Structures are given as structure tokens and as C-alpha cells.
Amino acid sequence: MLRATRRLRIRHTTRYSYDKPIPRSVHRLHLRPIDDWRSNLLLYHLNVTPTVPVVEYEDVFGNWSQRFEVNEPYTELTVMAESLIELIDTDPFAFAKLPIHPPSWPLMWMPWERTMLAPYLTPAELPDTQLGELYDYGMEFVRGNNGDLMETLFAINLTLFREYQYRQGQTDVGTSAYQVFCTKTGV
To answer: What residue spans of 90-148 are helical by DSSP H?
Structure first.
């Protein structure tokens, strides 16, 4: 049986420009598309300017990563990744039709997963009262979906889309999750 396919050409460009020279920097990228039974990676090319050696490796989750260092002062950095992938047309929600009991809350983590996720599971930057509010907010979705993980994630995504506004200039790297929760705006 022939399966329908489609090709996607993807070009990602990130440009950094600084008013003062940056003496040194280290970068890790996740720009290479996955190559599996649903998608065939036909082409992937990464170009970094200024030209530096790039180390590519597979992380513990099976994702391809690239790492590089710029050890000379610079004021501009450009990262461009080009990919060509062939997708096998499949129903992206087919997993929901499988006769497998969907994952539910609470999630069980393997020890190595817990180590990798520790910065996200134990955020130290927020007071316990704010963490409690965020936890209660999240658990409303869990209870409202009878602990079904996928339904909970769908509900959270839909709520973010409907109730939170994308507004440039409202948040930056120092903005906490709690501040976004309270204002319902940001990037």
C-alpha cells in the first residue's frame, strides 16, 4: 500500500546583534528535525556565522542537538538551519484511538528523567504561596479531565490560546511563570 507523503522545506534563521562585543559564548541548538517512521529527513544543514566548530550529538531523549562555542569577541551571531523532510501523512491524533490506557496523573518518572527535569519540577525562584497557586491552577485541569494526561494537556493548551494574550514587551527572561499567570499576557 502506498502512503501519501508531503515535503516540507524549513529555514530557521536567528540573528543576534549587540552594541558591545561579546567576549565568549556557549550555545546548544535543537534545530534538526526528527527522522523516524513518520518523517524522513532528506537534508539538514546548519550554518553558524562567525564560523566555529559545531559538535552534533544525540541527547538522552533521542533528540539531535548541536553545541558550539564562540571564543573570539563578536557583535553579531547568525544561526541558520535548513531542512527538507518528507512526511508520511498520518493522523496526528491517531494515538488517541489506540486501545492503550492513556497516561494519567500522577506521572511516574524514572530516576534519570527526574534528574533531567529537576530544574522544572523544583523551581526555587518562586515563594511557596505562588507555587501553590500555580499548582492549584494546574490541578484544576487534571481534575476537570479525570486525570487523563492528554485531555489535560489539550485543555491547558486551549485555555492558554483563549485566555492569555500574546503581547510583545510584556515579558522578558526575568519574568516568572507566576507573573504571566497573574497578567495573562506575554510572549
So the answer is: 111-121, 128-144
Contact status, residue 127 vs residue 134, Cβ threshold 8 Å:
no
Global confidence as pTM: 0.53
DSSP 163-177: H-EE-TTS--TT--H
Residues 158-162 have a mean pLDDT of: 94
Give yes or no: residues 174 and 159 share one domain: yes
Q: How far apart are CA 53 and CA 45, in angstroms?
A: 14
**Residues of 92-102 as b/e, b for ≥16 C-beta within 10 angstroms?**
eeeeeeeeeee
Same domain, 70 and 108: no
C-beta separation of 33 from 10 below 8 A = yes
The average confidence (pLDDT) of the chain is: 86
Query: How many domains, the chain?
Result: 2
Report how far residue 53's alpha carbon sits from residue 70's, in angstroms, rounded to the nearest whole number.
9
Which pLDDT band holds residue 103 (cuts at 50, 70, 90)?
Answer: low
CB 76 within 8 A of CB 18: yes
What digits encode the pLDDT tens for the residues 15-31?
Answer: 999 999 999 999 999 99
